[in-house]
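Design request, tokens follow.
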């Protein structure tokens, strides 16, 4: 399957939540962001996600940016051609 960066980001957050058995509400609190913002990211309603927001999510999960992006979701072969 081919992804946009926004799709891959959303799926990665969902993967991390499932791995840690945590909720979106927990993540919003831990990342110090409105629940509505997190929902918009996960539901694909945001047009973009800044690196600063991803960093806040990483801090909440206690992982590095490198660990966040180390998923196969972010491999170049998995991106749709319309975004390259």
């Amino acid at each position: 399957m081919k992804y946009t960066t926004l799709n891959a980001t959303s799926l990665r957050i969902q993967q991390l939540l499932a791995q840690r058995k945590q909720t979106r509400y927990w993540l919003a609190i831990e990342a110090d962001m409105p629940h509505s913002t997190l929902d918009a990211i996960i539901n694909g309603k945001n047009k973009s996600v800044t690196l600063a927001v991803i960093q806040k999510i990483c801090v909440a999960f206690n992982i590095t940016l490198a660990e966040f992006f180390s998923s196969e979701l972010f491999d170049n072969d998995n991106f749709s051609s319309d975004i390259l």
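Comment from the thread starter after seeing the answer: thanks! The chain has a mean pLDDT of 92.
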